[in-house]
């Protein structure tokens, strides 16, 4: 199932089974972070932290700007998901200027590129909308890393509210949903399950908890949670009820793959896993 995405210093390439590559070039300052794939036409969308935009890549490696830099209030781009039925791309973005923080959730029509939804919070308190997931109940759930919070956004009412705020959501980052609608959140201390009906939070335990600390993007796939850790791609097999971890495995790592550096997020399409690596995000963070 492995199909890895990496940046060749300036941008992204796709390797099927770590053997072949689809390469596309973009600006050196791009700094990719979020990734999502349209199952309808297999086009890949990647958000930029450095240039505040989203590009669209086809399977041949040709790319174009889907959302241009700063278009429609798009800020430093992070997590994204696609609503395949509506053909909308949902994404979150952020920006800090002086002592003020801006975090936003956006939706763009994939055919026209026009903005269909947007909600922005501007505050002196620290916020960082990091990732989001589309839930079967029609709501959008968004992680806020700085606030240790998961928000619920109603795309019909165009309103947002705090859904869960807890120390168990410390540094909440990647978020995924299983077939029964339960949420999985990557936190500073590891994976946490969030039951949408009861709002209860349940931390998972591991054989080696260090492997699960501070994961970034995660996906749910066939009773498994696959996550991007600091130096590797982790695969956690769950029990049938998805209540505990049966086994864990390192899919790929910097020790085995010389192209692997600064991994961020991942996306799943069928049985193929796409992962953004060599993002140079750490370099940008050091410069800020």
Can you characterise this structure?
This protein is an all-beta fold. The protein is built from 1 helix and 25 strands. It has a 5-stranded mixed beta sheet with strand order 3-2-1-25-24, with no helix packed on it. A 4-stranded antiparallel beta sheet has the order 4-5-6-7, with no helix packed on it.
Order of helices and strands: EEEEEEEEEEEEEEEEEEEEEEEEEH
- Look at the helices and sheets and give the structural class: mainly beta
Q: How far apart lie the N and C ends?
A: 36 Å
User: What fraction strand?
Assistant: over 45%
Q: What's the number of extended β-strand segments?
A: 25
Radius of gyration: 17 Å
Biggest sheet overview: 5 strands, mixed
Mean residue pLDDT: 86
Global morphology: globular
Helix tally? 1
Low-confidence stretches: 1-16
Strand order of the largest sheet: 3-2-1-25-24
Helix content: under 10%
List the main descriptive attributes of the protein structure presented here.
five-stranded mixed beta sheet; mainly beta; 25 strands; 1 helix; four-stranded antiparallel beta sheet
Please outline the helices and strands.
Elements: E1 3-7, E2 12-16, E3 20-23, E4 32-37, E5 44-48, E6 54-57, E7 63-67, E8 76-83, E9 88-97, E10 100-109, E11 115-123, E12 129-134, E13 140-144, E14 149-154, E15 159-165, E16 175-177, E17 183-187, E18 190-194, E19 201-203, E20 218-220, E21 224-228, E22 232-238, E23 245-253, E24 266-269, E25 272-277, H1 281-287
Parallel strand pairs: 1-25
Antiparallel strand pairs: 1-2, 2-3, 4-5, 5-6, 6-7, 8-9, 9-10, 10-11, 12-13, 13-14, 14-15, 16-17, 17-18, 18-19, 20-21, 21-22, 22-23, 24-25
């Amino acid at each position: 199932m492995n199909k890895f995405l990496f940046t060749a210093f300036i941008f992204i390439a796709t390797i099927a089974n770590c053997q072949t590559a689809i390469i596309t070039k973009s600006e050196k300052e791009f700094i990719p972070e979020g990734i999502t794939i349209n199952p309808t036409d297999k086009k890949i969308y990647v958000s930029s932290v450095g240039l505040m935009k989203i590009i669209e890549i086809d399977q041949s490696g040709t790319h174009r700007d889907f959302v241009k830099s700063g278009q429609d209030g798009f800020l430093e781009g992070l997590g994204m998901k696609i609503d395949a039925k509506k053909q909308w791309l949902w994404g979150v973005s952020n920006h800090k200027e002086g002592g003020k923080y801006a975090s936003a959730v956006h939706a763009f029509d994939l055919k026209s590129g026009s903005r269909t939804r947007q909600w922005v919070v501007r505050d002196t308190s620290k916020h960082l909308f990091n990732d989001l997931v589309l839930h079967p109940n029609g709501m959008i759930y968004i992680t806020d890393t700085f606030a240790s919070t998961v928000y619920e956004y109603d795309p019909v009412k165009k309103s947002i509210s705090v859904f869960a705020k807890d120390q168990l959501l410390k540094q909440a980052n990647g978020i995924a949903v299983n077939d029964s609608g339960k949420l999985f959140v990557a936190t500073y201390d590891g994976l946490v399950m969030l039951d949408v009906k009861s709002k209860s939070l349940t931390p998972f335990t591991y054989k080696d908890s260090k492997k699960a600390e501070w994961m970034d993007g995660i996906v749910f796939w066939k009773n498994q949670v696959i996550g991007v850790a600091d130096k590797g791609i982790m695969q956690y097999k769950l029990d049938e009820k998805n209540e505990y971890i049966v086994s864990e495995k390192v899919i790929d790592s910097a020790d085995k793959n010389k192209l692997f550096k600064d991994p961020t997020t991942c996306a799943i399409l069928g049985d193929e896993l796409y992962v953004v690596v060599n993002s140079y995000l750490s370099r940008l963070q050091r410069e800020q």
